Amino acid sequence: MAQGTITLTQRSIYIIPTRQGFMLAFVLVLMLLGDINYNLSLGYVLTFLLTMMAVMSMLHAFRNLAHLQVRAGRAEAVFCGDTAQFTFHFNNPSPLPRYQLCLVKTGETFWQTEPASLQFDVLARQDTEVVFPLPATQRGWLQTGRLTLYTEFPLGLFYCWSYLHFDARCLVYPRPMDDAPLPSGSSPDGTGKRSVSGDEDFSGLRKYIAGDALPRIAWKAYARERGLQVKQFTTPLGEELWLDYADTPDRNDEEKLARMTRWVLDAEAQGLRYGLRMPDDELPSSSGIAHRDECLRRIALFNLPQRRQP
Fold first, then answer.
1. Which pTM was predicted?
2. Residue 202's pLDDT band (boundaries 50, 70, 90)?
């Protein structure tokens, strides 16, 4: 698999005649036999003129791909069942434009009736961004695999192609369940609220520790001969949830992951602080887009053999 930018050279470009090319070759052979048999001078001229046209068509097909520079861009994460959008950049350093380039998943050949291909042009001395769609059928990492870049320009007589195999991946999240209410909060009273040290609400007294601020000392308690004590305050952080894999009532893993995906999306939409507990992993509670994406990533890669970040 290639990384970075690759340049198409004569070693990586292949060319064969198309159906029309083979038919033209057969017709030219018949014309040549007729010219020889009947000694037709103008027939020779027409036969060799068409032959030269076919040879020039082959050269133009090769030039349409030669020295083209290709690099892969980033693909945004999608949900299972959606279409992943892989971005590729085609740079044409030559002063000649490249026409009728087609990008197709290897295995979907050019003689199919409706190949799932993408056709585009690359202007002279310009960089063209091409978005190649691939269906995301299962969670985890979706790879582009080997792609085929081909052209039949200019006359459709020759099929000229090259293979592109980049280390490009797209993360596919499980499809979120349609109806999955959030679980109850993690606090003992079920409200889901948690408090930490702060300066807003009085929460009680504790023993004095050397270094505590003097304004925090409870002087009234000291006057009652209860010793030096310090006032404590708390700041509510808002609602917090633990999204635990063990709390899902579903029967199989995929349904459990679909429910947890819905929980993460709903918890983030409601502005809650939430943590994630998986059978083999745990993510501390937080909030924000980065935290949401990390939770979804761990859910998507749960129990898969390849979990590394590309």
1. 0.74
2. low
